[in-house]
Design a protein that fits this description.
Elements lengths: L3 H27 L8 H11 L28 E3 L6 E5 L23 E3 L6 E3 L12 E3 L4 E4 L13 E3 L4 E4 L13 E3 L4 E4 L14 E3 L4 E2 L15 E3 L6 E3 L12 E3 L4 E4 L14 E3 L4 E4 L13 E3 L4 E4 L13 E3 L4 E4 L11 E3 L4 E6 L8 E3 L4 E5 L1 H5 L7 E3 L6 E3 L12 E3 L4 E4 L5 H5 L4 E3 L4 E2 L16 E3 L21 E3 L21 E3 L6 E3 L14 E3 L4 E5 L9 H4 L10 E2 L2 E2 L2 E2 L5 E3 L1 H5 L9 H7 L9 H7 L9 H11 L10
Parallel strand pairs: 2-3, 3-5, 4-6, 5-7, 6-8, 7-9, 8-10, 9-11, 10-12, 11-13, 13-15, 14-16, 15-17, 16-18, 17-19, 18-20, 19-21, 20-22, 21-23, 22-24, 23-25, 24-26, 25-27, 27-29, 28-30, 29-31, 30-32, 31-33, 33-34, 34-35, 35-37, 36-38, 37-41, 38-42
Antiparallel strand pairs: 1-2, 39-40
Length: about 675
């Protein structure tokens, strides 16, 4: 006889079993059946695959998984609709297809595609008109290919497009007709092509939907529209690198959703002004560089409290730096270089500022202490003359780039530069600094890549242990001073050194043949010092493997050079046919100068009679003609040209400045 409690327990178990069984059956019948890839879809994909060289021979390609014995919905880059089994997405970005799209390509048989990404696939040729057959497309990405010609009118059939990226191709013509029907488009990027004509008025049809508009670096030329109020959803606009002209487009900045504006490198002119700006403006980045703007920076700039990046460089702005700039408390990058600003640097509390470029203006006065927290500080080519007292006690250990060149500083080198620890670039050249080089600078030099102290009045000696840990140094320039003593042998530790210039000092030493062990040394300038003795010693290595420029003229070298002296100077003797012209390397003519060493013999036997560091135009023309490939300074003059790795100090700064506004070259994809 069953015990009642056991009976009820068994009843509960049976009830639960049938409940879960019913739930599973109901869920199974209610769920959609996962469809496999249709044969016509597989055939179209395989046909597309065989149009390119990326087949079984390229095991790294995503297309290697495209095989007939598997479900094409499981192939890499392919996505199918779960109900119909039709291919709705094809993502092949970064696969080197290395071909053109055929008019009857299998790709255009996938007429249910909603997403197509062929970014950086090395495609070339024109876009086939058949692309217009993919009328369900919502996302089309062709960025970074070699596509040419005009965008076919049939692309206008893609009325469902929300995202279109044609950036970085070679398209030409205008975009009026094909783009007229993209009324759902939110993201349009046609930058870095060769589109021409006026600002496409057809874009006004897209005004109510667009959030990102990027048409930079094309050949558009027209006045910029005065009314942008219809673009009420616009967040990013990039029209830089064209030829738009007219006054500053003040109405553009009334769009409350704007976060990123790039108008750089156009022909805009006149003053800038911001009116009727919402207190809740979201603007974070503003690029106005390389236009013809003039007048002062308006106080209304302070109406953008969220601004992080502001570039006003290379215009005709005048006046002082307004104190209202200090209201931009979120500012990280500020560049007003190459204008006509005057006066001092105002007090500020821009605690987030990391990049500041005030170079090439007419600013004067002192360098305030609050700049000690900036990572990259460019103040060259102004009339600054002193340092604020607060700078002496400021924490300057964060500064990575410090350029104070071409100002009016005088007196001893400031002691606070010895606190610069993570710095990579230090330029104090073309000032009136005097006195000796501080011993404490030895610690500052450790992380440096470039040290430029040229054209000051520095005296004393270069300490022998100054460069003992300077393994990162690529450039050392102390030319144009009054330094004495010997060349520091600690330079042997500078294994990255490419450029050494001690020209026009009073250094008295033997020829530093020990520098020949530096693997990357390209330029060696010892000119106008008191170096003496022979260049050649029978038991000393003389192989400057990478040297391309040497100038030891105006010294006291003596002795005779054997015919094989330069046989291992491969950087001097290797001719490049494509660079057979008299060139400038790192700001110096590519040559070897041994002149005015009256007791140095055998140069004519080795080098010929032409030792011309500064040739006349006619001599330059003669140098460009192919000569016999002997070891000669003519060879050195014609061996190196554009494309060499090492840059002048100014080029390094310019390059760094170009890279600094990383957002300016933003990929909206």
């Amino acid at each position: 006889m069953m015990i009642p409690n056991q009976f009820y327990c068994l009843f509960d178990i049976v009830t639960l079993y049938f409940f879960f069984l019913g739930f599973l059956l109901l869920h199974t019948f209610a769920s959609p059946v996962l469809q496999h890839c249709h044969h016509d879809q597989m055939d179209a994909l395989l046909e597309f695959k065989h149009e390119f060289l990326v087949n079984e021979f390229n095991s790294n390609s995503s297309l290697s998984s495209w095989k007939t014995n598997s479900d094409c919905c499981l192939w890499e880059g392919v996505t199918c609709d779960t109900k119909s089994g039709k291919v709705i997405s094809l993502d092949l970005q970064y696969i080197p297809l290395n071909n053109f799209l055929k008019l009857n390509s299998g790709l255009f048989k996938l007429q249910h595609l909603r997403n197509l990404s062929l970014r950086d696939c090395h495609l070339h040729g024109e876009i086939p008109s058949s692309l217009g057959n993919l009328s369900h497309l919502e996302h089309l990405d062709l960025l970074g290919n070699y596509l040419v010609g005009e965008v076919p009118a049939s692309v206008g059939n893609l009325t469902q497009l929300k995202y279109l990226n044609l950036n970085n191709n070679k398209f030409t013509g205008n975009i009026h007709v094909p783009f007229a029907n993209f009324t759902k488009l939110t993201h349009l990027d046609i930058s870095n092509n060769q589109f021409t004509g006026e600002l496409p008025l057809v874009l006004l049809n897209l005004a109510t939907s667009l959030s990102i508009l990027a048409i930079s670096n094309n050949l558009f030329k027209s006045i910029f529209p005065s009314d942008m109020s219809r673009f009420d959803k616009l967040e990013h606009i990039d029209v830089g690198g064209n030829s738009f002209f007219g006054p500053f487009p003040t109405p553009l900045f009334m769009i409350p959703s704007l976060t990123w504006v790039n108008l750089r490198e156009n022909q805009f002119e006149g003053p800038i002004e911001f009116r009727n700006i919402s207190s809740s403006s979201k603007l974070q980045s503003l690029f106005l560089s390389q236009n013809k703007f003039e007048g002062p920076i308006p106080k209304s700039i302070s109406k953008f409290p969220n601004l992080e990046t502001l570039f006003l460089s290379d215009n005709n702005f005048t006046g002082t730096i307004p104190i209202s700039i200090s209201n931009l408390v979120n500012l990280v990058t500020f560049d007003i270089s190459q204008n006509n600003f005057t006066g001092p640097i105002p007090r500020s509390n821009l605690v987030k500022l990391q990049y500041l470029d005030l170079s090439n203006n007419k600013l004067e006065g002192e360098i305030p202490g609050w700049l000690g927290g900036v990572l990259e500080l460019m103040l060259s080519h102004n009339s600054f003359s002193r340092f604020g007292k607060s700078l002496e006690v400021s924490d300057v250990t964060h500064i990575q780039t410090l350029d104070l060149s071409s100002n009016s500083f005088q007196g001893p080198l400031p002691h606070w530069i010895c606190k610069l620890r993570p710095s990579m670039f230090l330029d104090l050249s073309n000032n009136i600094f005097n006195g000796s080089i501080h011993q404490c600078l030895r610690n500052t030099i450790v992380p440096l890549r470039a040290l430029n102290l040229q054209n000051n009045n520095l005296t004393g000696i270069l300490l022998q242990d100054l460069f003992v840990n300077a393994t990162n140094l690529e450039l050392v320039d102390v030319s144009g001073n009054k330094l004495e003593g010997k060349l520091p042998e600690s330079l042997i530790n500078c294994i990255s050194l490419k450029f050494l210039n001690v020209r026009s000092n009073k250094i008295k030493d033997k020829f530093p043949s020990w520098l020949s062990s530096l693997p990357s040394l390209n330029v060696l300038i010892l000119r106008s010092n008191e170096f003496y003795g022979p260049l050649y010693h029978p038991h000393v290595s003389i192989g400057f493997q990478s040297l391309k420029v040497i100038d030891i003229s105006h010294n006291h070298f003596n002795g005779t050079l054997p015919p094989f002296y330069f046989s291992k100077w491969h950087g001097m003797t290797t001719l490049r046919e494509e660079h057979q012209s008299y060139t400038v390397y790192m700001g110096y003519p590519a040559y070897g100068a041994f002149m005015y060493n009256s007791n140095l013999y055998s140069l004519e036997d080795i080098c010929g009679k032409t030792h011309v560091p500064n040739p006349t135009p006619q001599e330059s023309e003669d140098l460009s003609k192919p000569k016999e490939q002997v070891i000669s300074w003519i060879s050195a003059a014609i061996a190196y040209g554009p494309g060499d790795e090492v840059l002048t100090w100014q080029q390094q700064k310019n390059k760094k400045s170009d890279l600094a506004p990383a957002e300016e070259k933003k990929d909206f994809g």
